[in-house]
Design a protein that fits this description.
The complex is a heterodimer of chains A (193) and B (158). Chain A is an alpha+beta fold and 193 residues long. Chain A has 9 helices and 8 strands. Chain A has a domain of 116 residues: Jelly Rolls (Sandwich). By secondary structure, chain B is α/β, with parallel strands linked by helices. Classes of the chains: A alpha+beta (193), B alpha/beta (158).
């Protein structure tokens, strides 16, 4: 139930057995069935969610009803609308399960309580947030400076597991291109290899 | 506006289970039915669906799985096998609200708290006789308030 989380934490900081036992008391184990929501637009995002198993997506829906993928979360990934989580403002995003999923949720209250009780976790989250800023910066550059093919090649290189597991129409949405363009790019790259 | 919650009712096919389901049915929350007598669940689900066609219900034969999936856990008619149930759900009930139904608060508090030290225990006495509203009590005030709100929605929408 905590395998992926403990592995993820263990890569960044070292916890004793007592600390690990205490850590577990702050998390809410939660299962979601495919297509169930963790967060719906208009609600406040009350939890940080860690994916133990399954697959989640964070996305917005525009006024034409078109979905825009912002993030995917495979096992080992965190997902949250950080703005809504920190400010308590209603979210503009949705988070739902693309597969049956197993999550560990951390509420705002327990997030703070955990940091106070286990200060080492501050370091864990600092590293997590640093990595997140870098990833966001790269994604921003990719979106404004690179063409569709280059964007896909970088995505494929950075996240090979995602390409295996996530439906192509959703990857196209994440990259801001049409599914047809993505198919064309993939055919072209396949021919080259 | 608040997202639909999944409420697992353990012992759903018992008299207490059915009584609490009747209160929860109009709330619009998703009801996850679990009972040791799993063969009773399909007809119970059908009956609920008939009463409230728009209500989302699911069945789950395993008590641990049901509690794992739940946001709020209701233990109905758990008395005879209470300790057994608590042991099964212990590690999936962390931080969750666990509603204990129709049980003597003082007698069971320490027992439940011992098995579920990281859950929020709330006691619920269903309306009956003179009482029109469910009586809700417990040591964790925000959890008591949250459960009261669950049932308030039920009353308002009726």
């Amino acid at each position: 139930m905590f395998e992926a989380l403990l592995q993820n934490i263990g890569e960044k900081i070292a916890l004793t057995n007592e600390e690990t036992a205490q850590l577990k008391t702050y998390f809410t184990p939660k299962k979601l069935r495919k297509r169930q929501y963790l967060l719906q637009e208009g609600d406040v995002c009350k939890n940080l969610a860690f994916t133990e198993a399954g697959l989640l997506r964070l996305y917005s829906v525009d006024d034409k009803g078109i979905e825009h993928m912002l993030q995917f979360a495979l096992p080992g990934w965190w997902v949250v609308d950080i703005y809504s989580f920190l400010t308590g403002e209603p979210s503009r995003f949705n988070i739902d399960a693309l597969e049956d999923s197993e999550l560990l949720l951390l509420s705002q209250e327990n997030f703070e309580a955990m940091m106070a009780a286990l200060p080492k976790m501050e370091r864990y989250f600092r590293i997590l947030f640093q990595n997140n800023i870098i990833a966001k910066e790269r994604r921003l550059e990719s979106a404004i400076a690179f063409g569709a093919e280059e964007r896909y090649r970088q995505f494929e290189q950075a996240y090979p597991d995602f390409v295996q597991r996530i439906p192509l129409n959703l990857i196209a949405s994440y990259l801001g291109i049409t599914p047809e363009t993505l198919s064309r790019i993939r055919r072209k790259l396949a021919r080259k290899n | 506006m608040s997202a639909k919650q999944t409420i697992a009712v353990i012992g759903a096919a018992s008299a207490e289970g059915k009584a609490v389901l009747a209160c929860l049915l109009p709330t619009g929350h998703r009801l996850l039915l679990m009972d040791e007598a799993a063969e009773k669940l399909p007809s119970l689900q059908q009956q609920l669906q008939h009463q409230q066609p728009r209500c989302e219900t699911d069945t789950e034969p395993c008590c641990r799985e049901a509690c794992w999936e739940a946001d709020v856990i209701v233990l109905a008619n758990a008395q005879p096998t209470l300790v057994d149930t608590l042991q099964k759900i212990k590690d999936v009930a962390t931080t969750k609200i666990v509603v204990c139904l129709g049980q003597n608060e003082e007698e069971t508090t320490s027992e439940i708290a011992q098995h579920l030290p990281h859950s929020k225990i709330v006691f619920l006495q269903l309306p009956g006789g003179a009482a029109k509203l469910p009586e809700i009590s417990g040591g964790n005030k925000p959890a008591v308030e949250a459960v009261r709100n669950l049932f308030k929605t039920a009353n308002n929408k009726q």
